[in-house]
Amino acid sequence: GKPFPVHAVRRDFPILSEKVNGKDLIWLDNAATTQKPAAVINRISQYYLHENSNIHRGAHTLAARATDAYEEARSKVCKFIHASSPREIVFVRGTTEAINLVANTYGKQTLQPEDEILVSCLEHHANIVPWQMISEETDAKLRVIPIDDHGQIQLDEYEKMLNPKTKLVCVAHVSNVLGTITPIAQMTKMAHAHGAKILVDGAQAVSHLAVDVTDCDYDFYVFSGHKLYGPTGIGVLYAKENLLKEMPPYQGGGNMIQDVTFESTQYKVAPDRFEAGTGNIADAVGLGAAIDYVESIGMEHICRYEHSLLEHSMEALHKIQGLTFLGTAEDKTSVISFIIDGLSNDKIGNALSKEGIAVRTGHHCAQPVLRRFGMETSVRPSLAFYNTKEEIDEMVRVLIRLKKGQHNFYLQNPHFMVY
Ligand code: PMP
Questions:
Q1: Engineering a disulfide at 283: which of 24, 35, 234, 404 sits with its beta carbon 3.0 to 4.6 angstroms away?
Q2: Which residue windows are coiled coil (predicted)?
Q3: Which of 33, 95, 128, 171 for mutating ligand 1's site (highest number of atoms within 8 Å of CB)?
Q4: pLDDT attached to residue 406
Q5: 365 is catalytic
Q6: pTM above the 0.90 mark?
Q7: What is the Å distance from ligand 1's center to 95 Cα?
Q8: Whose CA is nearest to atom 4 of ligand 1?
Q9: Cα 322 to Cα 59, 120, 268, 313, 325, distances in angstroms
């Protein structure tokens, strides 16, 4: 196929021309958040310039514009993840709120004492803590599906854990620390065979992989707009319509009611029932623009290019003496975690930052998976389709220099040698 037009694509992202510490910004922290194309920035601006209103279509002209823009964004999300109907799309603040919503509505309603919730060892804290909280409230048990040394979920162990008490399986589609793509379609079939529902945390998946919630038969699929080149403060809860119908509301307030008296309230149907109060209208519209933008490039092209970047990176990093990768699963997106012998992760992060290179160092809000590999923190460059091989090479050059500097330092100061 044609080479990926990375230089043209880069011009769509104004922030990529930013200077940081006197250097060209090299943004390799895409798993934390992605940068925004002008199309998204301009769409939000357009909304505030020409459409801003609260959403109650009938009231006046701007209300109609705002309502239409908001509902159009919902339809774009619906098509993007291949949901059956926009009524299955609930706008929330992000992945975290979506999971808390499911835990506190569906979870609270269905979980009985001794019921079991399964999460995997590679979950983000957002897919652990809400389940711990709801387990405590309902006396359900939280169990952990183990992963192997490559950072892949152990399906045989998962199969053994499934039983009639299993009510919910909550698993990431892609790990934010290791980049592992989990066998989520198969895990869904296995959960359903045991009568359990599945919630898929798609926060790290939607920007790298084509997602089809209907084909894969997920019950719940959640993600954040800001990791998909969209704004912060907007995210998506997809749930099958029949599940949403049965779920009690999350928060009470305006926008979600059919009729209120002091004696009782009738709620609207989904998705309105779950969108109490004035929502993040402008950023939902911005998310719609982000989806348009991603689709204009094409997920297939994005996948292929990012994979070639990943291979290039792993090869280049591999040459650094004393570097150990975390996460070597065969199915992997462009999230890379490593440590380097003798260099603290903070030191690596600071040295890179001085050169304008942004990577994440720390526990990445996923302490259990790091501890599975005997670590508290790692260095995590994560790539997007606007990154280049030259940027990766620059990162590797800085790391090699740092590593060499360390050697020189030890040679000159032998009493600092640690064995
Ligand atoms: N799950 C995963 C796998 C993530 O990577 C993240 C973001 N780091 C989250 C959940 C939480 O997303 P947010 O902070 O946008 O709610």
A1: 234
A2: none
A3: 95
A4: 72
A5: yes
A6: yes
A7: 6
A8: 203
A9: 65, 29, 59, 16, 10
Q: Which residue has the CA at smallest separation from atom 14 of ligand 1?
A: 96
Q: How many residues are present in the chain? A: 419
Burial tier of 22 (Cβ tally within 10 Å: 0-12, 13-18, 19+) = exposed
**Cα separation, 248 vs 266, whole angstroms:** 11
DSSP codes, 121-188: TT--GGGTHHHHHHHHHHT-EEEEE-B-TTS-B-HHHHHHH--TTEEEEEEESB-TTT-BBP-HHHHH
Ligand 1 atom showing the smallest separation from residue 98 Cα:
16
Q: Cβ(280)–Cβ(91) under 8 Å?
A: yes
**126 Cα: distance to centroid of ligand 1 (angstroms):** 6
Q: What is the pLDDT of residues 152-186, one digit of tens each?
A: 999 999 999 999 999 999 999 999 999 999 999 99
Distances in whole angstroms, Cα of residue 272 to Cα of each of 83, 262, 283: 17, 21, 17
Give the angle subtended at the CA of 377 by the CAs of 180 and 314, to the nearest 5°: 45
Contacts of 386 (CB under 8 A, 6+ apart): 6, 9, 10, 12, 13, 16, 27, 35
Cα dihedral: 239, 183, 225, 291 (round 10): -90
Q: Which helix (H) or strand (E) holds 337?
A: strand 337-340
Mutational pocket test of ligand 1: of 171, 199, 224, the residue with most ligand atoms within 8 Å of the beta carbon: 224
Tell me how far CA of residue 143 lies from CA of 102, 106, 118, 175, 372, in angstroms.
Answer: 18, 18, 5, 18, 15
ipTM higher than the 0.90 cut: yes
Measured in angstroms, how far is the CA atom of residue 97 from the centroid of ligand 1? 10
Q: 236 and 98 in contact (C-beta within 8 Å)?
A: yes
The three-class DSSP label of residue 387 is coil
Given 3-state DSSP classes, what are the helix, strand and coil percentages for the chain, each rounded to the nearest 5?
45, 20, 35
**Tokens 């994440």 appear where?**
360
Which residues line the pocket of ligand 1, CB cutoff 6 A?
A: 94-96, 124, 126-127, 172, 176, 201, 203-204, 224, 365
